[in-house]
Amino acid sequence: MDINNVISGILSVEGTISLVLEFIGFLSVIAMVIGAFTRLGKAAWRFGFALYGKKIMIVANDEDYHDLEEDLSDSGLIKRKNIQRVSDKHISKVKDALLLIVVYGYLNKDDFREIINSKSSRCGLIVHCPPEKGRIDDDEMGLLSKTAFTALCNFRGRLVNDVLLMMLSTSFKKSDLE
Asked: Which CATH code for domain 54-177?
């Protein structure tokens, strides 16, 4: 048995295995690229539109509104021009909202229920209920649990995360920018 034949046989097997593994790796990269463009790309595109143009309406008193506006704009992802305050005297404005934050305790029970019942099915609703505002009644909690795209948030830091997730979850179209 010649040593040269043994070495060339080993190198031939190693080359074949290497070629097969490179081919599998190449196919994996192509599958990842296709997956990224079809699913992740669509989500990233929609999220980018939402960050750019989705208006956030906050139903709160002046002090709570300014605190929440500052928290959202300090994130660096949401522009101040996309954040609007709605007072308890202009509740009818929320019917056109695509993302709504309601500070619990600011509205009376009837107005709170009206907002929940009249919001669009495409609108995300986040109820901000800090500990100092008390607990949400069981009836109101039941109503929230029956409504699509709702979240309950107790802390301001968590609110920014909930807003970003709600932007990704709710539908947003290019026509909504107008």
From this structure: 3.40.50.2300
Q: HSE (CB half, 13 Å, CA atoms) of 156?
A: 13
pTM above 0.70, yes or no: yes
What secondary structure letter does DSSP report for 37? I
Distance CA 100, CA 96 (A): 10
On whether the CB atoms of residues 115 and 90 are closer than 8 A, the answer is: no
DSSP element (H, E) containing 149: none
Q: pLDDT for 49-73, tens place per residue?
A: 677 778 899 999 999 999 999 999 9
Give the mean pLDDT of the chain. Answer: 85
Which ranges of 39-108 does DSSP label H, i.e. alpha helix?
Answer: 41-53, 62-74
What residues contact residue 113 under an 8 Å CB cut-off, 6+ apart?
140, 143
